[in-house]
Amino acid sequence: MISTFRADAVLFDMDGTLTDSIAAVEAAWGKVAKDIGQDPAYVIAATHGKRAIDNLAQFKPNILPHQMDSEVQDFEESILFFADAYRTHGPGSRRSPPTYSSESAVDSEVNTPSLTPGSSAPSSRASSFAFDSSRRPSFASRLSSALMMSAVPEAEVVSPAEFEDSSMEGNHVDIVEQHWNDKSKFHQLKAWQIEAAAVDRSVRILPGVKKLIDSIPAGRYAVATSGAKTYAYGCMTRVGITPPPVTITADDKRLKAGKPAPDPFLLAAKCLCYDPKRCVVFEDSPSGIRAGVASGALVIAVCTSHERSKIENCGAHFIVDNLEKVKCDFIDGQLNFTILS
User: Which of 51, 162, 256, 325 fits as disulfide partner to 320, beta carbons 3.0 to 4.6 Å?
Assistant: First the structure.
């Protein structure tokens, strides 16, 4: 069935809609689950589409308020580490691992106008983007250093399917452990050292994304994601997407709540200077779809991370397999959409 409609602007979710980093995200949450003694499958399912700050508050309630920003950044750096480990420490590894610091992430509060007078001042987190020799090395920097000391030999890197065989893990433990003098530290990091480099969890761009983005004029689209700056900008830049000037990340201090509340999409529409009811939201997760519906926008759900049966009752106006099913033409100052659902 073919449907057509017009809109003023587009509000994209990021992961699961534009990018696919689900393997790295699940690995990171799986590690959190193991650290706290919970079932990884349960934690992974419960955290999808929600802000890391909200998930960490739920599953690690002992984190103090003043520690949360650092905990979120460390967690999101771990996602990017999982995404890059196979490439940087497996086949074709480089001697200089990539930097995951948020120095390269652009503050969404600096790049979007304020909702109210006086609220456009940069976040207090912005000062941490500059190098501070007194600040402890980032989690990923420490972990990268550890891996460089005991990189997995190229011949020992296995495919995801092969790694499902638990007997392979023991082989990697033996290979890497011999490089460590402090066995206690080795056993704390072995899951990262061995498994992260053994499985390809690279970030990928999803089908139809580039063509759709290229068809929308600048200033007519934004990204509103449950990821904070480190993760959001890291994912998009890794697949060749230039984060738009209006990119609302989870650590934007103007947000009172994350998805499934509509706040991220309402803020994005406001920053674009368009009525959210004249916007189109693209989403993949149940919480994100509900957020888009609550914002008053027309919502198009994509079946890239969930089966259709899992999202068809969340209120989306259209459900498509992926963004290859969506066409946009800019005619007479309007975005004209064609949906093949």
Answer: 325
Cα 68 from Cα 119, distance rounded (Å):
22
Helix and strand totals (H; E) in the chain: 15, 11
**pLDDT 10s digits, 134-145:** 334 444 444 444
Give the bridge partners for 335, in sequence order. Answer: 7, 330
106: number of Cβ within 10 Å? 16
200: nearest Cα among 305, 84, 98: 84
Listed in sequence order, the residues at least 6 apart from 61 whose beta carbon sits closer than 8 Å to its beta carbon are none
The answer to whether 213 and 221 have CB atoms below 8 angstroms apart is yes
- Tell me which residue of 230, 135, 215, 163 sits closest to 23, measured CA to CA: 163
Q: What is the pLDDT of residue 181?
A: 47
Residues 6 or more apart whose CB falls under 8 angstroms from that of 120 comprise 109, 113, 114
